[in-house]
Specification:
By secondary structure, this protein is mainly α. It contains 13 helices and no strands. Helices cover 75% and strands 0% of the residues. The N and C termini lie far apart (50 Å). GO terms for molecular function: nucleoside triphosphate diphosphatase activity.
Length: 263
């Protein structure tokens, strides 16, 4: 018989407590928030990867790993006397009810666009209650750089600091590319980093204007390159060559062959 959600969660909480007990697992006992945080981030990415691959068995497994991370942090917080898992669950439940008055309260029904606008207003009020002032307050520094740049740009755009359209962003991108090109060949590494950073930030804004997620765009590009390069290696292997032995000209020819086959 399948366990109820409550029973399954209690079992997981008990397992976590046992792992952290004095006679529990030595590795688990010595961990802290900072040492576990990288695993938490990694598990979130693995959830996203399973979703991209539409692999439901893997998604179930990865969601379990991510849930374990939440339980892990809650257990450590409980040991420190800060909060426990129940407090985490109660806090998010209260927040969701507070942010959906059109569902749980008496506010008028909203379409998706109206809900998005109301959600942002509510989040701004919560940031102000936490005394986080400023348009860009509360954007986590630990976010992946492309994601954080996207959030920063969206916040700035909400108060009117934005390009009018994608064409204007493309013009700005041309300007940034010219500035980067002008730094060659004598620029310092710090100067090149600064100019390349400007260019990447503009690219993120271009994705935003095209209603695309920059992280997803780069993820797709990575997967495409990986697929094509693996095919190049396989093609060269059929000829008894490795990429290092074949040389750039042969690899480029194989690359173009792979692209033609994909088309």
């Amino acid at each position: 018989m399948t366990a109820s959600p409550a029973d399954a969660l209690l079992r997981l909480l008990d397992i976590m407590a046992r792992l952290r007990a004095p006679d529990g697992c030595p590795w688990d006992r010595e961990q802290d928030f900072a040492s576990i945080a990288p695993y938490t981030i990694e598990e979130a990415y693995e959830v996203a990867d399973a979703i991209t691959r539409q692999d439901m068995p893997a998604l179930k497994d990865e969601l379990g790993d991510l849930l374990f991370q939440v339980v892990y942090h809650a257990q450590m917080a409980q040991e420190d006397g800060a909060f426990d898992f129940a407090a985490v669950a109660e806090a998010i439940s209260d927040k969701m009810i507070r942010r959906h008055p059109h569902v749980f309260g008496e506010a008028a029904a909203r379409d998706a666009a109206a809900q998005t606008a109301a959600w942002e207003i509510q989040k701004q009020a919560e940031r102000e209650a936490r005394r986080e002032t400023g348009t860009l307050a509360g954007i986590p520094p630990a976010l992946p750089a492309l994601t954080r740049a996207n959030k920063i740009a969206r916040r700035a755009a909400r108060v009117g600091f934005d390009w009018p359209d994608a064409e204007a962003v493309l013009a700005k991108l041309d300007e940034e590319i010219a500035e980067l090109r002008a730094e060659f060949p004598a620029a310092s590494k710090a100067r090149l980093q600064d100019e390349l950073g400007d260019m990447l930030f503009v690219v993120v804004n271009l994705a935003r204007k095209l209603d695309l997620d920059p992280e997803t765009c780069l993820h797709v590009a990575n997967a495409k390159f990986e697929r094509r390069f693996n095919a190049v290696e396989a093609l060269l292997g059929e000829r008894g060559q490795s990429p290092a032995d074949a040389g750039l000209e042969a690899m480029e020819a194989a690359w173009q062959d792979v692209k033609r086959r994909e088309r």
